[in-house]
Amino acid sequence: MNRDPSVIDVQAEIAHWQERHAHEQLGVGKFSVLSPVVKLACDIYLQAPRSSQAQRLDMFRDRLQTHFLPPGSQPDLERLATDCWRRLGATSSQENA
Fold first, then answer.
1. At a CB cut-off of 8 Å and minimum separation 6, what does 79 contact?
2. What does 6-23 look like in DSSP terms, one character per residue?
3. Which of 3, 22, 51, 82 is at a distance of 20 to 30 A from 89, taking alpha carbons?
4. Per-residue pLDDT of the chain (97 residues; tens, 9 = 90+)
5. Kindly report the CA angle at 69 between 65 and 74, in degrees rounded to 5?
C-alpha cells in the first residue's frame, strides 16, 4: 500500500535507518553521511511519488552531484535511497513492467 506523500515523517525515516546503521546493516561508514541521503530520498519521493525507480535514481544522481561523497560510496548511497523508497511504498507499476 502506498503512503500519502504528504504525511511522510522524515525524522522517523532517519531514525529507522540510523537504527539499521547501528546494527551494522548499512554499508557506509558514519551515519552523518547517510542522514542527508535519507532526507534527499524522502524529498524526491515527495516530489515524484509515482515516478519509476529509474526516474527517481536519475533525480537522485543529479542532486547527489552537489554533495561531497566518500570515494566509491555512490552505489551504497543509491541502494539506501532505493531501500528508503521501497519502505515508503513508492513502487510504481513501471518498475514491475
1. 27
2. GG--HHHHHHHHHHHHHT
3. 22
4. 445 556 788 999 999 999 988 887 776 678 888 899 999 999 999 998 889 999 999 999 999 888 777 767 888 889 999 999 999 984 333 333 3
5. 80
Contacts (Cβ under 8 Å, ≥6 apart) of 4: none
Give the Cα-Cα-Cα angle 17, 22, 24 (nearest 5 degrees). Answer: 95
Calpha distance 93→97 (Å, rounded): 6
pTM above 0.85, yes or no: no
Q: Rounded to whole angstroms, how far apart are CA atoms 92 and 95? A: 6
> So where are the chain's domains?
29-90
